[in-house]
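User: Here's a chain of 202 residues. Predict its fold as tokens.
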Amino acid sequence: MNQVTGAPGTSRPGGRTARVREAVLRAAGDALVDKGIGGVDLAEVARRAEVGKTTVYRRWGTVPGLVADMLAEMAESSLPRARTGALDTDLAALAGLILKTLADARQGPLFRAIIAAAASDAQTAAALHRFYRVRIEEWAPCVNEAVARGDVPEGTDAAEVVRALSAPLYYRFLVSGDPLDAGVAERAAVAASAAARAGVYA
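Assistant: Prediction complete.
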């Protein structure tokens, strides 16, 4: 899948450097969940990760740089899209993956903290936007393949179908506080598929 690039700390290292990166990003995520972006300190992240402060300052430079690399790592490690051969089941797989992520005991609070941080920090917002562009690009082909099979109209905006599926899940997660469960995910997938077939996104 596409790799997020262009932000501090977003090269993909190996060996000891990879282990340092993993430890620092985990420590940064813990601090972000605990304190919000305003309470994250690079020296404290280094202490939590048990690495030298110089390493953290040299490699990431700023807290937004750390968050950008955290999102890059999430994009790198995200599961590839489903290839079931049918739009309905592909979209159901995507909805299930989003639900699993948002309901996860660590990933859910981490995404909430990053999204909150993006509202007040332009670099974090840019990194978040890159992350979601990567995920949309990963899943849009399931809609394009449906177009090629004749299941949905020519000219259907694949990215918009993916956004339409995601939106009700994130609305419950971030705004309404209504239950977020398998039934909600299933309805989001069915609604996005039905709208696509009806030509709403063409």
